Amino acid sequence: MSTDINKYNDSQFAQTTNDDEIDLRELFAVIWQGKWLIIAITAVFAIGAVIYAINLPNIYKSEALLAPASEEQSGGLSALAGRFGGLASMAGINLGGGGGVDKTKMAIEVMKSRQFTSQFIQRHQILPDLMAIDKWNMSDNSIIYDDKLYNLTTNTWVREVNAPFKPEPSMQEAYKEFNKVISVNSAKDTGMVTVSVEHLSPVIAQQWVTWLIEDINRVMKERDVDEANRSSQFLNKQIALTNVADIRSILYKLIEEQAKTIMFAEVRDEYVFKTIDPALISEEKFKPKRAFISIIGTMLGVMLALIFVFIRYFARKK
């Protein structure tokens, strides 16, 4: 009985194996029969991918490596944090006791904010270079704008849009477009910050990175100076209202620290970020990866061609 079962199982296994071999042979036969169709579809996709890749404009990337500089100015204030933190908080002063937001993280978020971006675009008048550029000529470093969007002769926007949009892009549109080309990242292990910009022109990309670093240092410095001035005014008013010697002594120390903050800000341009590796004008394109696009297009053509051939074969077979 056992021998019969074993023979039955062997025969079933042999039949299954034979069926698998037949299926593979059938599949190879289908591929061979449709080889010219597969070649044709693959060729169309390959040529299309190559043409598409060739027509893509070169994008250049410029980046700078920055180191946080905010820790160096916190020594004096941190020394007073434990002693006068409560009184200082009444004046709206942050003594750096560790409970507030890290200044480097705040600066990064400010750079990504709508307000900073809008002010940056308007301050440097880069809206045409952001929204209307068509191509960059390497030979003479000139910019060609899309005449359907922007008239360089009259410096006016001529794009056709539907309401509520206007010919001149709004700051909301500009913010969305700017976010596509800018990148601000902080390394978790080292704390270093990388600021990069991608653009058709490597010169513009390098200039924008430089401006971004200068502007964020200036904005953060102005914020701290303004806060220190307002805090000093408050403390001076409190001094005038009290006759207690100890409290007046504490208030004078707080005013002294605010004066140090203002002095530190005024004598230093790199207030929040120190430039470790400045942005350079890139000599090589960052993207597109034309060879990669061509390979992916060809592979996609092969897969779609095989799927089409198999579907057609099995549809006819039924």
TrEMBL record:
<feature type="transmembrane region" description="Helical">
    <location>
        <begin position="36"/>
        <end position="54"/>
    </location>
</feature>
<feature type="domain" description="Tyrosine-protein kinase G-rich">
    <location>
        <begin position="274"/>
        <end position="313"/>
    </location>
</feature>
<dbReference type="InterPro" id="IPR050445">
    <property type="entry name" value="Bact_polysacc_biosynth/exp"/>
</dbReference>
<dbReference type="Pfam" id="PF02706">
    <property type="entry name" value="Wzz"/>
</dbReference>
<protein>
    <submittedName>
        <fullName>LPS O-antigen length regulator</fullName>
    </submittedName>
</protein>
<feature type="transmembrane region" description="Helical">
    <location>
        <begin position="291"/>
        <end position="315"/>
    </location>
</feature>
<feature type="domain" description="Polysaccharide chain length determinant N-terminal">
    <location>
        <begin position="20"/>
        <end position="122"/>
    </location>
</feature>
<keyword id="KW-0812">Transmembrane</keyword>
<dbReference type="InterPro" id="IPR003856">
    <property type="entry name" value="LPS_length_determ_N"/>
</dbReference>
<dbReference type="Pfam" id="PF13807">
    <property type="entry name" value="GNVR"/>
</dbReference>
<keyword id="KW-1133">Transmembrane helix</keyword>
<keyword id="KW-1003">Cell membrane</keyword>
<dbReference type="InterPro" id="IPR032807">
    <property type="entry name" value="GNVR"/>
</dbReference>
<keyword id="KW-0472">Membrane</keyword>
